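User: structure tokens for this one?
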Amino acid sequence: MSDNSTSAAGERLRNTRRLVIKVGSAILCGDDGVRQKWLAALAEEISALRKTGVEIIIVSSGAIALGRQQLKLGRGLRLDEKQAASAAGQASLMQAWQSAFSRHGLPVAQILLTLDDTEDRRRYLNARATSRTLLDLGAVPIVNENDTVATSEIRYGDNDRLAAHVAQLVEADTLLILSDVDGVYDADPRTNKDAKRFDVIDAITPEIDQAAAGPNVTAGVGAGGMASKLAAAKIAAQNGCATIIAPGHIDAPLAPILNGGPATLIRENGSAAKARLRWIAGRLKPAGEIHIDAGAEKALRAGASLLPAGVTKVVSVFSRGDAVSIVGPSGGVIGQGLSAYHSDELQSIAGRQSDEIEALLGYKRRPAAIEKNDMALHEIPK
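Assistant:
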């Protein structure tokens, strides 16, 4: 525990450039539906943060809670009833977010994900490309689990973990989980007056896990409790993303964090970019090879993406999103990356200019054969 933790969480939030905010159903929804005043205040804060250059993605629960009210369902729902409630509540949920942000001239866009979308490389790339494009276009992505098609075997189980996977997907600096408690404690603060809040957690230890697995596990009304928040923080940390757990019930919940209010900051393990490079370089088996010329290698070393013009040969059959070895003009492997094209497509456009791609393939695509953020190059031996 630390006596400078609250400022640590505030400092982290102030220095964040890409932020994922997780809003749970217990925070967003009341007995009469969406807490409109609370949501309006949060939207105003998010709008202000965006003006400072922060990119923000929201992971929102609430569809099942709203749908349950609309369909007059009780609690303890079967999976099919939860899916029906989600289908009924999604429209109301998005309407609420759209209304809140329209006052600030910000468009919103819904992204529905399942576990497969983040574990299958091609779906992962599609989801990531969509998220990036929405951010580039100035929209606020609103993400939720696709409950209507998920099954008990492939569900995330709670939106805390979903938020952590989204943070990985978009390479966020920080994951902010708005909770009904003001951080992580060494015991349940509702039953133990001596419970102390962790201001900063450098690494989640078994002792911290054990504290969350006790009474704290019931924190929150949705599917996640404190244990699931810590599980999400572990996922985020492994991918270079810090996590802030802070109180969310209050109106304008971001201001207290920025001003040094109570919160717990859980630090990351390295940067998101480095974590991604380690994943590309060390954990994926290459499905083929892309050979490049000297000019392309020089451009890659300078930090550019690989364009089809620099490709001299394509070896083996691979799909979009597969890992491939990048082979330099000397015949040695200089790195590894995720191909943005199927091998047949790349064969057709190898050595050609970017403005020729649409005519050659019959459809428009991003020009890079491998995006710069999707490759890990070996260092040049000294």
